[in-house]
Amino acid sequence: MYAELVDSMGDDLTVVNAARVSFAKEVSTFTERDAKLIKYLAKHNHWTPFAHVTATFRVAAPIFVARQLFKHKVGLTENEISRRYVSDEPMFYQPEEWRGAPTNAKQGSDGIVADQGYCHAYHEDVVRVATAAYHHMLKEGVAPEQARMVLPQSMMTEWIWTGSLAAFARVCKLRISKDAQAETAVIAKDISDQLSGVAPVSWEVLTDGRE
Ligand SMILES: Cc1cc2nc3c(=O)[nH]c(=O)nc-3n(C[C@H](O)[C@H](O)[C@H](O)COP(=O)(O)OP(=O)(O)OC[C@H]3O[C@@H](n4cnc5c(N)ncnc54)[C@H](O)[C@@H]3O)c2cc1C
């Protein structure tokens, strides 16, 4: 499971120059004054200058994580591998630990369950049976677009994800919070770490307050 930065356009200077175009001004060196401007923009929800910096990630994650991340729509575009065209050996995400149900909340998790071996074995069984059924169906001539129906949500998928700094900041703030799914937070943290290298000042202020 990972998010790898494959391309980016713009940096902190792009943000301040987008803001300053309103006054027909442009700078070529980033100064403390620009850092203050970025803080001001973020504080007052002037998000458009942050939409001129874009980044592209290649992400690999299980289906259930992809589904959550694809809920974020504005300012983001994804292209995903399709099992209508690809019938390669499916890969599956196996968690290191099976977490317990939350005691005081409706979502999230608490601690880990006692019988880890049972959960691992059960998941492995499901994956083995599902994979065998998938291959059998393909061998019998079933269309890949239907054969994939037997594969579980832990199957890995891959997509190219392009979006603006403003959009990825929204994703990361929402998905690195205490109530977010832990597996989804892994991808959000990966994205956050890499974007903090693209536009450090903007990223810091845009994601300030995330848990
Ligand atoms: C912890 C957690 C739990 C969640 N649980 C569920 C769940 O159980 N079921 C579920 O379906 N989703 C769930 N979601 C997804 C959530 O409802 C949002 O769809 C998701 O977080 C995307 O938010 P976004 O602000 O990036 O949305 P985007 O769709 O990318 O929109 C960006 C912004 O544009 C504005 N906007 C977009 N569309 C409209 C509109 N139609 N009207 C007005 N303003 C709009 C909003 O300000 C929004 O924040 C959950 C998300 C989180 C973080």
Walk me through this protein's architecture.
The chain is elongated and about 65 Å long. The longest helix has 24 residues. Strands 1-2-6-3 form a four-stranded antiparallel sheet. A two-stranded antiparallel sheet has the order 4-5. With 211 residues, it is α+β, with helices and mostly antiparallel strands. Helix 1 packs across helix 2 and helix 7 runs antiparallel to helix 8. Helices cover 43% and strands 17% of the residues. It contains eight helices and six strands. The mean pLDDT is 93. The structure holds flavin-adenine dinucleotide (FAD). The site of flavin-adenine dinucleotide has 9 residues, from helix 6.
Strand tally = 6
Name the ligand types: flavin-adenine dinucleotide
The helix content is 40-55%
Question: Distance between termini?
Answer: 21 Å
Which sheet architecture does the biggest sheet show? Answer: 4 strands, antiparallel
The structure class reads alpha+beta
Low-confidence stretches: none
Mean pLDDT level: 93
Structure annotation, total helices: 8
Sheet-strand content, in percent, reads 15-25%
User: What oligomeric state is this?
Assistant: single chain
Q: Per the principal axes of the C-alpha atoms, what is the gross shape?
A: elongated
Give the topology string: H per helix, E per strand: EHHEHEEEHHEHHH
Nearest-angstrom radius of gyration? 21 Å
For the largest sheet, list the strands in their spatial order. Answer: 1-2-6-3
Short descriptors:
6 strands; binds flavin-adenine dinucleotide; 211 residues; 43% helix; single chain; four-stranded antiparallel β-sheet; alpha+beta
